[in-house]
Amino acid sequence: MDISVLMSVYNGERHLREAIDSILNQTFKDFEFIIVNDGSTDSSEKIIQEYQDDRIRYIKRENGGLSAALNTGLFVAKGKYIARMDADDFSVPDRLEKQFDYMEKNPNLVALGGGITYMEEEGDLIFSYVNTMSPDQIRENILQMCPIAHPTVFYRTDVAQKCGGYYEKIKQYFEDHLLFKKMLKYGDLYSLQEPLLHYRLVSTSITSNKEFMSEYLAIRQRTLVNESISDEDRDRLFEIKKHGNTNLNFKKSKYHLYLGKLYLWKNVNKKKSRKNLRISLKNHFKLATLALYMVTFLPSFIVVNLYNYVDKRRTK
Fold first, then answer.
1. 199 and 56 co-located in one domain
2. Do residues 137 and 80 share a domain?
3. Are both 62 and 116 inside the same structural domain?
4. Which residue range is the domain that position 307 belongs to?
5. Is the separation of the CB atoms in 219 and 233 below 8 Å?
6. Which has the closest alpha carbon to 111: 187, 214, 42?
7. Those residues with Cβ within 8 angstroms of residue 183's Cβ, 6 or more apart along the chain or in another chain
8. Model confidence over 136-145: pLDDT tens digits?
9. Under a CB-based contact definition with an 8 Å cutoff, are residues 268 and 283 in contact?
10. Other beta carbons within 10 Å of 11
11. Together in a domain, 229 and 164
12. What are φ and ψ of residue 120, in 5° steps?
């Protein structure tokens, strides 16, 4: 078998059908679709079992976190390659075909990503992003940034298994980044220069732990270098996650502030940016958000120049 598509599901009922359909309707047909239900308590199982497609391999397990769920599927996969998928995204129809063909023609690669198109929770498209780094640049910068958007990755099954799969001690933080770093011992990483997946931004995925970011990055750096995490760092990671503000109005404000920034800086869609920033201000007032809201009334060429100026200063 050529490909094993690997997807973990935890309470993903809202967008699950769309994710599954996007895989079953691929132009490339020779694959198995491993769906690991990681202890869902919603109707995810019922939705999965509605499908009468022989390519689906359904595995149910107790909740143990993303890394453990993915390893459950990885180590029973029959495909030469693993194509990752998330339960709230959807792949473009020829994603598997393009990634399979490219990997077959480039045996030096152990993993191949692709561009992503960001979309709102309800499906409105925001902007597309592709990683333009060469394999050599990826290797040089592996400790600083994750080189492949995890739900787009297409990697060699045997190499991932040799690396021990996903590191279960960190459960769901940078499990992909660490695996990619380990895989570099066996070959190169790269991303196709076109969007292959629509990535859904949901309010629960927007973090509000800005004050802990430097500490989080330091823990990530140590873990990537050592390829393991100390008990102290692991416990601190969980503490950092707990420190997130759980107030619903605050979370809604952060989510719409993030969307407002993306629409303004990446799309220069001032109308949609303004709409999201208004919602953000309504739920949690901040002067910085108000200032950004005022920027949406400036001419587009000024917005672009302002973004380029700020971006240049940030990357110096």
1. yes
2. yes
3. yes
4. 248-315
5. yes
6. 187
7. 110, 111, 155, 159, 160, 163, 189
8. 999 999 999 9
9. no
10. 16
11. no
12. -70, 170
Which long-range contacts link 131-140 to residues 24+ away (Cβ below 8 Å)? 131/191, 132/193, 133/191, 134/190, 135/108, 135/109, 135/188, 135/189, 135/190, 138/188, 138/189, 138/190, 139/184, 139/188, 139/189
Pick the last residue of a domain from 205, 223, 256.
205
Q: Model confidence over 31-57: pLDDT tens digits?
A: 999 999 999 999 999 999 999 999 999
Same-domain check for residues 258 and 197: no
Q: What is the pTM of this model?
A: 0.91
Are 37 and 93 found together in one domain?
A: yes
* pLDDT for 209 beyond 70: no
Same domain, 201 and 214: no
Residues 257 and 215 in one domain: no
End-of-domain residue from the set 187, 205, 223: 205
Number of independent structural domains in the chain = 3
Q: Which residues contact 15 (CB under 8 A, 6 or more apart)?
A: 87, 88, 89, 90, 200
Mean local confidence (pLDDT), 81-98 = 98
